[in-house]
Amino acid sequence: MNTLSFPGTWMNILEVLSRIAVLVNATLIAFTFDFIPHMIYRRYLKSGETTQSYVDFMLASYTFEHQNPDGSTVNQTCRYWSYTKPTTAAESSFWLDLMLHRVLFIFLFQNIIWAVVNVIELKWARTPQHVKERMVLEEKIAEEWLSDDDDDEDGEGVDKKNLTPNKG
Q1: Could you tell me if 55 and 79 are in contact, meaning their C-beta atoms sit under 8 angstroms apart?
Q2: 26: Cβ–Cβ under 8 A, 6 or more apart, which residues?
Q3: Distance (Å, whole) CA 112 – CA 119
Q4: Which phi and psi angles does 8 have, rounded to 5°?
Q5: How far is CA 22 from CA 76, 78, 89, 113, 117, in A?
Q6: pLDDT value of position 28
Q7: pLDDT > 90 in the chain, percent
Q8: Per-residue confidence (pLDDT) for residue 1, from 0 to 100
Q9: Is 70 helix (H, G, I), strand (E, B) or coil?
Q10: Around Cβ 165, how many Cβ atoms within 10 Å?
Q11: Over the stretch 16-48, which tens digit does the pLDDT of each residue have?
Q12: Shortest CA distance to 141 belongs to which of 125, 127, 157?
């Protein structure tokens, strides 16, 4: 059975998957949490407006006609949490500012996370020192073994079972 001393390609695959995961998480935070729109709305806040005005501003609406059993029609408006259709220039400006800040948040979030990961990787090596020493030793033994196989006339060789040098 073949054993691997280094994960090789799997480390690259895991690196790509972790970067994709950070990007997805940053996008989810930017588009589902309410702190970015609330911060931007505060900047647009006029005197006398409250948190209730923010909620009213952010709720989207859908108006539909409902027919009662007696035949009369009633217009009803359904409000739901979604900032979708800006109708005025000020709302359009708010929407563009909101999207800009969300993209900026995604960029900053992923780069800060990747910077922290790189600092951690620099501080702590992936391969422990005793493993590095063992790899160097095995490499030297393999080089001796290969060189001794080429010129095995002098009687010196390598004990291939123990991987230790033999002196005659």
Answers
A1: no
A2: 105, 106, 109, 110, 113
A3: 11
A4: 60, -120
A5: 42, 36, 34, 8, 11
A6: 95
A7: 21
A8: 43
A9: coil
A10: 14
A11: 999 999 999 999 999 888 888 888 887 776 666
A12: 157
